[in-house]
Structure formats: structure tokens, C-alpha cells
């Protein structure tokens, strides 16, 4: 297992923000994850698991503890027949979508442009363009706090809007089985390209971000509320409400975690004052802010 000391977390998050982690580990199997957890507990360090770091913000001071990356060391994808794909938690959603398309399987096109790993997507019930993980997940293998392997089916996962039964439980996703349907290869490819084109035209992909900054409030769209509050382009330091899509806070260059946090708080305050709607961040804040 690769173990890095004082590793800058800005290199491991899509926001490109975050100070150093005391220890950064890249395991290749469940046993090495157990070793990482034991390493942290033995030293009385907190620990956290991440994938690609696409929906999180670490503080500028870093993380005094152990960060375990379920990513490049655990990213195998296997087509097992009958429309089923088994993939390790560190597999990129884009890679899984490509594998599904290669076997003419439909149902995962929505996830092809989401910049994250399968494990994080399952925990958050990630979704886009009318699709969600809950529509395709059959089984989730995970590691519990006792180091035991357990398997949860779709019902047990209790998927909700950007949530699941394990969202706030100490269960680490190891592997996921997806059930997809037979489709037409050309149609699948065309749909994936159509969605990719929509993302390019509507989302600020040219700047680092953590994806959509806020959850969708019931009955509203976060981006429109922010725009109508006059906050398009609002900026503090290197952090800015995207001019292209107000639902994103982007790193225009040199943004600190403090900059991002201040922009988010200002957006929440102005939207609440003007529209009486509370915007809940979709971003996970980690460490001490």
C-alpha cells in the first residue's frame, strides 16, 4: 500500500483546494483498508475515505489524520453477463459508462460525465439528467466498523435524494453490482455524446469545482435562485459563483477553502433573505473549519 506523508489534498480534490493530510494511503484491497484504519486508530488519528474528491472541501490547514483513497488502487470493472457489471468502488463513473456502452448496455449514460468514483456515487445516490444510482444498483459490498464484509441490496440501501442508508454510517464501499439493460450501441453512444455536449455548454467545466454546490430545494432550482438574487459572478478571493451556471462555485485560481466557505455563506444568506429558501450545500466540508 502506498503511504504518503504531508500529502497536499489540493492534488486529490476536483476543487484543487486543501492543505496537507498527515498521512495519505492508497490501498488495493479490503485488507489494506483494514490496515489503514488500524494505523489511524493506533495513533489516535481521525480517518476518512475519499474517492476522487469530487464533492468535498478540505480546509486550508489540511487534515490532521489519515486519508484513505478508495481510488486508483481499487478501480477494476468487470462485465459478468446478463446485463450485470461489477466494479470496485474506486472505478470512475466515466469508465463504467464506457464499459457499459462497449457491451451495448443502457441505463448508465446519465453517469458518464459525473466526475467521481462509484463508491462516492453510491453513498450520495449521485444523479444527473433524470438518472440516479438507485435505478441501477443491485448490491453493495462494504466494510463495517468492525472490519467485517457485508452486502446490502437496493432496498437496504434506502436511497433518497443525494442520500443513502450508509451516508452517515461507518461503512466503506468496496464493490458494487449494477443491473443494466440491453440496448443499441449507436443509440447509447449518441445519448452519451448528447449529455456530454449539454454539460460542456451549461456547466463551468473550464474551472475546478466540486460540482453542483447546493442541493435542489423542493419546488425551486438553486442556480436560478442564486441568479435572481443578483449573485452571478459574485467573488471572494479566487472563489466565484460561476457566470455560466450559478449553481456552481468555482475556483478561478488560487481560491482557498475560506474563500469558498465565505461565498457559500453569502449566497445562503442572500437567497434566504430574498426568497425565504434555505440552500443546503451538497458539498461535504471535512476537517476543522
Please render the helix and strand layout as text:
Blueprint: E1 2-8, E2 20-26, H1 30-42, E3 47-50, E4 56-57, E5 63-69, E6 77-81, E7 84-88, H2 93-102, E8 105-106, H3 118-124, E9 127-128, E10 131-132, E11 137-143, E12 149-153, H4 154-157, E13 172-179, E14 181-182, H5 185-202, H6 222-228, E15 235-236, E16 239-241, E17 249-251, H7 257-275, E18 284-285
Parallel strand pairs: 2-5, 3-5, 4-18
Antiparallel strand pairs: 1-2, 6-7, 7-13, 8-14, 9-10, 11-12, 11-13, 15-16, 16-17
In summary, what is this structure?
This protein is α+β, with helices and mostly antiparallel strands.
Notes on the protein architecture:
The protein has 289 residues and is of the alpha+beta class. It contains seven helices and 18 strands. A five-stranded antiparallel β-sheet has the order 6-7-13-11-12. A four-stranded mixed β-sheet has the order 1-2-5-3, covered by helices on one side. It has a three-stranded antiparallel β-sheet with strand order 15-16-17, with helices on one face. The radius of gyration is 19 Å and the shape is globular. The relative contact order is 0.13.
The helix tally amounts to 7
SSE string, helix = H, strand = E? EEHEEEEEHEHEEEEHEEHHEEEHE
**Class by alpha and beta content:** alpha+beta
The outline comes out as globular
Amino acid at each position: 500500500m502506498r503511504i504518503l506523508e504531508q500529502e497536499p489534498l489540493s492534488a486529490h480534490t476536483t476543487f484543487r483546494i486543501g492543505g496537507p493530510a498527515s498521512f495519505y494511503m492508497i490501498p488495493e484491497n479490503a485488507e489494506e483498508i483494514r490496515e489503514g484504519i488500524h494505523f489511524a486508530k493506533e495513533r489516535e488519528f481521525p480517518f476518512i475515505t475519499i474517492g476522487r474528491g469530487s464533492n468535498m472541501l478540505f480546509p486550508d490547514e489540511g487534515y490532521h489524520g489519515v486519508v484513505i483513497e478508495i481510488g486508483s488502487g481499487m478501480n477494476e470493472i468487470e462485465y459478468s453477463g446478463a446485463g450485470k457489471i461489477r466494479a470496485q468502488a474506486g472505478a470512475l463513473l466515466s469508465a463504467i459508462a464506457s464499459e457499459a456502452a462497449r457491451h451495448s448496455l443502457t441505463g448508465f449514460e446519465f453517469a458518464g460525465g459525473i466526475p467521481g468514483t462509484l463508491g462516492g456515487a453510491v453513498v450520495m445516490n449521485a444523479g444527473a439528467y433524470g438518472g440516479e444510482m438507485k435505478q441501477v444498483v443491485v448490491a453493495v459490498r462494504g466494510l463495517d466498523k468492525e472490519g467485517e464484509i457485508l452486502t446490502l441490496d437496493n432496498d437496504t440501501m434506502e436511497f433518497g435524494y443525494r442520500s443513502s442508508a450508509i451516508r452517515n454510517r461507518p461503512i466503506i464501499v468496496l464493490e458494487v453490482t449494477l443491473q443494466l439493460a440491453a440496448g443499441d450501441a449507436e443509440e447509447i453512444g449518441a445519448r452519451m455524446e448528447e449529455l456530454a455536449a449539454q454539460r460542456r455548454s451549461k456547466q463551468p467545466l473550464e474551472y475546478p469545482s466540486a460540482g453542483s454546490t447546493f442541493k435542489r430545494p423542493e419546488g425551486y432550482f438553486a442556480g436560478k435562485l442564486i441568479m435572481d438574487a443578483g449573485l452571478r459572478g459574485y467573488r471572494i478571493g479566487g472563489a466565484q459563483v460561476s457566470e455560466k451556471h450559478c449553481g456552481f462555485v468555482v475556483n478561478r485560481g488560487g481560491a482557498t477553502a475560506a474563500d469558498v466557505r465565505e461565498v457559500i455563506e453569502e449566497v445562503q444568506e442572500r437567497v434566504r433573505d430574498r426568497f425565504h429558501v434555505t440552500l443546503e450545500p451538497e458539498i461535504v466540508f471535512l476537517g476543522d473549519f
